[in-house]
Design goal:
This protein is α+β, with helices and mostly antiparallel strands. Helices cover 56% and strands 16% of the residues.
Amino acid sequence: MFNSIFVDGFTMETAAICFGVSIVLGILIALAYSYKSDYTPSFIIMLILLPSIVQAVIMMVNGNIGTGIAVAGAFSLVRFRSAPGDAKDICMIFFAIAVGIATGIGQIYFAIAFTLIILALFVLFKALNLTLTKKKRLKVTIPEDCDYEREINPVLKENCSHYNLEKVKTTNLGSLFALTYCVVIKKGFSEKKLLDEIRIKNANLPITVNAYVGNKDLL
């Protein structure tokens, strides 16, 4: 069903077509990644250019796909030597590499179909995530004489459909405790109400609420 456009040999015309498709698909990947997401301009530029760069690498190694994948993979991992990436970043980078490999071997129609299907699923999952229950990371500072199991947990039980204590550590030379919870606030309950009730229990010490991003900031 999907035939390479290089069946009649490698020409400047077919190379230009592959390059143009790589750029367009890279733009689509970048637009999908930026949908409802925080991003840096440098990462968006990288997603736009990466398919065409990988395509050029595949072409330069004269169709030796194994060598091309090894070189392109080595280039793509350079970013993670200096900046931590989450699962979505890594997935998008390997997706852009796959698109570049497909265009590099002339599988233009497959690259287009593959890109549209994956991006449609990605945007769908992002849209669904907006309507699903969202976890929050709640960080509460309490005095050392505060029994958080008796003081804080009842407040969480009243306001949250789910809560889990993930981390406890001492701060300020042991005079304070920093608690980190994963919470899901009940429908109809406000975040402000939860914070106000905790402030009464923790002597108005600092409280922080962030989006839940897994355990990467717990170490």
